[in-house]
Amino acid sequence: MWRSLRTILYHGTASEIQQVDVKLGRERKDFGKGFYIAVSKGQAIGMML
Description:
By secondary structure, this protein is low in regular secondary structure. Helix content is 14%, strand content 0%. The chain has one helix and no strands. The radius of gyration is 13 Å and the shape is extended. The relative contact order is 0.30.
C-alpha cells in the first residue's frame, strides 16, 4: 500500500530562497556550514540568531 506523507520543513531566514547553496552558510554553526532546516517554525527562528 502506497501512503503519501507530507512534511513541512522550515528554514530560518528573512529573505526568499531561490535555490540552496550550502557554501553561503556561517562557519560557526553546530555542524559547520550547511543549509539548516527544522520541523518547527520556532526552532527555525531560533537558528537565525
